[in-house]
Amino acid sequence: xxxxxxxxxxxxxxxxxxxxxxxxxxxxxxxxxxxxxxxxxxxxxxxxxxxxxxxxxxxxxxxxxxxxxxxxxxxxxxxxxxxxxxxxxxxxxxxxxxxxxxxxxxxxxxxxxxxxxxxxxxxxxxxxxxxxxxxxxxxxxxxxxxxxxxxxxxxxxxxxxxxxxxxxxxxxxxxxxxxxxxxxxxxxxxxxxxxxxxxxxxxxxxxxxxxxxxxxxxxxxxxxxxxxxxxxxxxxxxxxxxxxxxxxxxxxxxxxxxxxxxxxxxxxxxxxxxxxxxxxxxxxxxxxxxxxxxxxxxxxxxxxxxxx
Length: 308
Description:
The protein has two domains: 39-120 and 257-294, 3-Layer(aba) Sandwich (D-Maltodextrin-Binding Protein, domain 2), CATH 3.40.190; 121-256, D-Maltodextrin-Binding Protein, domain 2 (3-Layer(aba) Sandwich), CATH 3.40.190. It contains eleven helices and 13 strands. The protein has helices at 2-26, 50-63, 76-81, 99-109, 138-146, 164-173, 189-198, 217-223, 245-250, 270-279, 281-289; strands at 39-46, 67-74, 88-93, 114-127, 135-136, 154-157, 184-185, 202-207, 227-228, 230-232, 240-241, 256-263, 293-294. Strands 1, 2, 3, 4, 6, 7, 8, 9, 12 and 13 form a ten-stranded mixed β-sheet that branches.
């Protein structure tokens, strides 16, 4: 009788030990599959910044042969939705996340997202070379956007509802006023350039990184198809400026916005490595060469007289 009781006690002890070990295994931390300079991660980035982000990834991967960063280029609203997807490690957009969005990430993934402004960008205005107008005041820009301009000029964007460019135009230029019903949408920023090059009555709005780099052969070809419009400076009436770096930095060009990365990573992995690269010297030099303004490094501005 005593021996049978002893055997049963051992049996239940072993069963309990089995469930205990199994429970510990289920609660173990998720295996870290990448490091700060190796592995594979996925990011979402605003399509407006594809040229500069492609350059950043290319250089980073050339220095870290075991690292692979796979980008998905989307409208900004879709990038923000990707913050809720566990496999997306970073998003790159034109604003910081809201308190509501941050709380959702904290509650869902049990981590605090990190964000940093890495560049200042400008929204460039492009027209067909046959259009006689090459300068606009901001009042005229608003008239074009709302359909009240003296000439029948049609605004075109890289989308109508979900893109950062449209959000910027509505929030920061129109201040909540409605776009004209005639506004058109291309699938991409390159599509905007192509449409404007073929339609003299169109006015395109795109990020400067698509058309501001005179050292890039592709962008040089774009500048042969369309021309950039100068916008009235914020500091000197009747003086018109293009979205060059110095004008972005000083705020003389009136349509500027931030470029922000948002990182959600449970450990110090490849996302952190890429974030460090973006804010470091080499990443900031790539931003500078893309004719955006780098915000994480100090660069000198030499005062000179330019024909704008």
